Amino acid sequence: MGTRTKEKTKGGRDLDLDRYRALLCAIETGSLSAAAEELNYTPSGISRMLAALEEEHGFPLLIRGRSGVTPTSACEELLPAMRELLFAGERLSQLSDRLRGLDTGNVVVGTAYSAFYAPLSRIISDFHRRYPGIQVQIAGGYSTELLEKLNTYELDLCIISHREGPHQWLPVCEDHMTAWVPAGHPLAELPAFPVEKYAEEPYIETYPGKDVDNVRVLARCRVKPNLRFSTSDSLATYSMVEAGLGVSMNNALNGRSWSGSVRILPLDPPQPVEVGAAFLQDISPAAGVFLDYFRSSLDSLTAEIKKA
User: Fold this and answer.
1) How far apart, in Å, do the first and last CA atoms of the chain sit?
2) How open is the CA angle 244-247-248, to the nearest 5 degrees?
3) pLDDT class for 15, splitting at 50, 70, 90?
4) The domain that contains 195 carries what CATH number?
5) Hey, what's the torsion of the CAs at 215, 217, 222, 223, to 10 degrees?
6) What confidence tens digit (pLDDT) does each residue in 136-160 have?
7) What is the extent of the structural domain holding 161?
8) Rounded distance, CA 30 to CA 39, Å?
9) What 3-state class would DSSP assign to 182?
10) Do 261 and 288 reside in the same domain of the chain?
11) The pTM is what?
């Protein structure tokens, strides 16, 4: 069973953090049984916890259906406060452990670039040997998505391209945007791909409708792409370009993971992108320990990224 954590509200009502933990897990997994398995409860135990939570709030929090569970509109409004509550509870627990001479906790690090998986994993491995009580996980996504998760306490640190906001920023390296062009395309032999050509050539968009670097570059250059296809995965985009369906744009860091019949060209004019680590000022104690270790490993990390 998971550790049951209770606090008293000003009204004298028990505040069971495990119930909120169970609710968020059910929403993220889309299933009560999956949440039960992940949190080491029985499905009936999870069901009772959530029923008690709904009774406490006085309205339904979940829509239950054959395909699983989804949050009600009222629950959606409460989610940011629930995540803040769980973050505060975890922070309190970590501070208490630290006062007893222990470093414990969970840290979730997001990265928008697959090129960081290997060096980041090595840093985490070295870190875990030094701090075995702190567990570190890696999560993927695109930059704006990861920053949103950071701001709702779903992540503790994220490696992304530069975004505006009140978060703290640690520069890591400079990236640049590139064109992905089929190897046999007439423009594949150019030294650089003119950005204005995206208005003419069939364009394959990655993460349609999202605030990604491709969209920012095209908006900045005032180019409306000749949109023909879209994907929600960079590898899928790469495969479609390789098949000759069109051209695309992506971060140079994202083009290092695959080899195939795709020409990767710099853009004309060049489009540099600053990559760094974003984190919040009220970072948890465990995440603060990891951030210090990450900062001390930056030279080796950037050297490995440049060499790749």
Assistant:
1) 44
2) 135
3) low
4) 3.40.190.10
5) -70
6) 999 999 999 999 999 999 999 999 9
7) 97-172+275-307
8) 14
9) strand
10) no
11) 0.74
